[in-house]
Fold these 2 entries.
Entry 1:
Amino acid sequence: MDYQYPMEMDWTTEEIVDVIRFFEAVEKAYESKIQKVELMSAYRRFKEIVPGKADEKKYTDEFQQSSGYSAFLVMKKAKEMSDGESVSMK
């Protein structure tokens, strides 16, 4: 991994950890698989920290530019799946 996670300096340490946890969940969907419920939990917490659509797009676009992983596509796929399923972008 040769990239940094997008974040704001005014976030608390807990918020930074939770945002990173969401991006790690997106990575996991691309690199192996992740349970939908785990991914959705990470996303819900991410949205508590980044509630606005414009800010969400800004951070997920920054993440995609540096990693090549699309949080948008992962979340789109996850929303189409049943709760007991695993999300995999492979």
Entry 2:
Amino acid sequence: MNDVINLMKSHRSIRKFTDRPIARELLVELIQAGQGAATSSHVQAYTVIHVKDPANREQIAELAGGQDYIASCADFLVFCADMKRPTEASERTGAKVVRGMTEQLLVATVDVALMGQNVATAAESEGLGICYIGGIRNNPQAISDLLKLPEHVYPVFGMCLGYPDHDPEVKPRLPVEAVLKEDYYTADAALVEDFDATMQAYYQSRSSGNKDTDWSHNLTPLFDNKLRPHMRDYLIERGFEMK
């Protein structure tokens, strides 16, 4: 495989960083690489907030569930789905803009996710480590207030960036046969069972804390209760009415 594919297959979440700063020029290049991602109808429905204020980063770390590396990484970014800019641009042409459509929410969320992954890959190509922070959706209104996000903009995830201070193993992924189907959707319970054994062996042997579990059991907290039930009402209040 070429270097790009090998890089993409070697991703690890980095949660310990050195004190080495990231040059501003490099950060701008990473954002520009992010802008190179595919975007639905060239809408570019995203905004990235570079959180520099240490006090704000400390507050976000707490709001995100006590993730201290938000405060200790070299740079912290919040990736926002943004339908404010494109709808206002359309409105200025005289269009009678319809807001709050579910498709607008989907477009903006997909756009910012693609953009963020481009940033992550570009960062790793430069020797940086990254860690996505979905925990900012634990308290999205408080995050929105802190970052002064307007209506029709919501924070989808954060990203820690910095030079790695540890070297964790690459976490195994599901076998290709489980996610790549030919023509039709087919059952894959046997593949998942085998993958559980793979993950159990990984968790028991990894250098950054051993535990006796597997993939299926790790999913339990996500699905045995209502995860972040506040998100629907929050999104509606932000103008994403899901009509």
